[in-house]
């Protein structure tokens, strides 16, 4: 700090009376001094935003997966929603928080099928919303992890049929200790 003041005083003493560059130099030095005194405060907010950004992306992807209609939510031709698809759309539009009420449709290999599924979801969503505007469904690259209900029922029924009968182990009671 003392060197800066000595430099400024020397330049000021050596400057001619009408030298405007002295004021510019002084403003330059003052600006950088103030910036150095604030360090690292000017970077803390951006660092916090950068640290939280991956979590915001994960939350958005989680809601996208939660509100996803997979291929098993539509009939084979994609023209209509199955009962599970209708219940899914109803859940999305009535139970999710209002700022996350967005319907996502899994992309098909054919663009026409994807568009037909989006139109079907939008048509059904418009019948559910009582007040306001139904959110418009959009396609997404995320794949649905779901399975048709017949597959789930088959797995569960096979598990129950092949379950061992609960029994106590064979053997007598332990001998009393004296």
Structural features, described:
The chain has 178 residues and is mostly helical. Helices cover 56% and strands 4% of the residues. It contains 6 helices and 3 strands, in the order αααβαβαβα. The chain has helices at 2-14, 21-38, 41-66, 83-94, 111-128, 149-161; strands spanning 68-69, 104-106, 138-140. A 3-stranded parallel β-sheet has the order 1-2-3. Strand 1 (68-69), helix 4 (83-94) and strand 2 (104-106) form a beta-alpha-beta unit. Helix 1 runs antiparallel to helix 2 and helix 4 crosses helix 5. The longest helix is centred in the first third of the chain and has 26 residues, at 41-66. The protein starts with a helix and ends in a 17-residue tail after the last helix.
Could you give the distance between the termini? Answer: 89 Å
Largest sheet: 3 strands, parallel
General form: flat
Mean pLDDT comes to 84
H-E order:
HHHEHEHEH
